[in-house]
Write a structure and sequence with these properties.
By secondary structure, the protein is mostly helical. Helices cover 72% and strands 0% of the residues.
Length: 80
Amino acid sequence: MLTVIAILWVLIWALLLVDLFRRDWSIGVKLVWALAMLVFPVLGVIVYLIVRPPSSADVHGVIGSADAPVGERSRDHHPV
């Protein structure tokens, strides 16, 4: 059971690191957050989830909106 919890925690931590490095923040801010999540794994992850501002994908519910074709992005914002 402990192994399952550890695997889930590593997956959550990895997904948050991916989220962190996709944001349009400076390298210094990203580095500080990554180090905080590495040094204080539980507290760092919880604080990051509380403090981080929502990205445009979080607000609009769009996954990979930057990679979507232009027509699909405009359709997501202006339904017909």
